[in-house]
Each structure stands twice: as C-alpha cells, then as structure tokens.
Amino acid sequence: MPFALIGFFLATKSHDFDWMILTYVILCMIFARSAAMGFNRYLDRESDSRNPRTSKSREIPNGKINAKSALIFVIINCLLFIGSTYLINTTCLLLSPLALLIILGYSFTKRFTIFCHLILGLGLSLAPIGSYIAVTNSFDLIPILFSLTVIFWVSGFDIIYSLQDEKFDKKERLKSIPVTFGAKASLIISKIFHIISISVLFYIGILESYNLYYWIGFSVFLLLIMYQHNLVKHNDLSRVNLAFFTTNGIASIVFGIFVIIELTIY
What we know:
By secondary structure, this protein is mainly alpha-helical. 79% of the residues lie in helices and 0% in strands.
C-alpha cells in the first residue's frame, strides 16, 4: 500500500489530485491483495495441512473456512478488482487481467521454479506503476523504478521468510532459493537483492534531485533493512517473523510517509 500511494502522489505532481481515483486505487489494492492471499491459501490447502508451521494457524487446514468459501471469496475479489479498474480508466481495465494473472499465478510458481520469490516481487511491484497509470493513463520511468525497487525488496524478504519451510519444501519437492542453495547462501542472495533495491532508491533520489524528506525516508528504510538481516542467521530463525512482518511493515510505512511529504511539499 505505501508504494501504491507513492505512485499516486508521484502522478499528482503533473496531474490534478482526485479523491475518487485515490479511493479506487485503495480499493484495487485491497481487492487484489485479498484475491491473491485467498487463492494462495486455497491452492496450498493440502500442503498447509501437512506443514507443522501452518496446519493449525491457517484457516482452511484448521477448519475455520472451507475450501469452497475461500474460492468464492477469491472470485468475488477478482470481480471487484476488475470493476474498480473499470471506474478508473480504460488502460487500467485492459491491464487488470494481466495483473490478476501475475498475482494469482504466483501461487503456482513454487511448484516449478526457484524464482518464485521474484514472481511474488513482480506481483507486488504492480502497485506503484498501477496507481501512477490510474492518474496519468501512461507509463513513466520513475514509477517503473519504484516498481523495480519493490521487486527486489519483496524477493529479498520472501527468501528470508521461506527459510522456515526449507526442510518441509524439500520433502514436498517444492522449489525455492533456500531449498536449492541452503540457508547460508540464501541469506547472501537476499542481501544482494536488498542491495539492488536500496541502490535503485538511491538512484531515484539522485535522478529526481529529491530533498530532505526523501533522504530521511531512504535512511530509515536502509537502516531497517540492515536490522532485518541482523535479526536472522542461517542457524537461528527464531526472529524471522519479527524481521518479515514488523521490520518490513515499519520500513515501507515510514518510507512511504516521508516520500509523500517530499512529493507534496516540493
């Protein structure tokens, strides 16, 4: 969501601010995320029931939600997503099936490629460029660079998160970078992805000659990414959830706030 809002406010630098478009963008984010999460839970319901980490915590394996209801939930959110893009502009509507293909298709990727982390990153990277298109009805370099940032940021932390299931995924013959390279090498790959993400953000700041608020947000984002990697060791995964949920959540929100301030003040 923070990167979607960055894309929106970036677009308002050259176009009028429209509360209705902002509302539709937020609705698109909610519906798309709900559809993606619901479909992932539906598709992985059998493996989740066999995984000790997820068998009791996830709703379909523990019986709180049945599979049919989950699938209906996914379909409804897909239709609401497409309906919201219809209310925005023709370009968003035409691109909506492709967006759904990517964000829903991610759930299949662990079955055939170790690059599933990058597909997840690609799905979430649609947020800044999609919200930019919602306002401008066009593509541009800077929102694309923000999307590139998201790809490698998300891929990096998803590698860390998937370390928890390395043994289970091997047993189930599922594919991931931890399964292929092991925990120690995977953490190095995750760091490389995050270095690329930070480097793109740095390049954006230089290219656009952003001022104080952008660089405050950048610095906080950088420090929290570094802290995230300090939390997780290849032989100690006890703080993965702190690194994955808390640190990344705070990093994106703080960065988003300061970038939006930068875009609205200057």
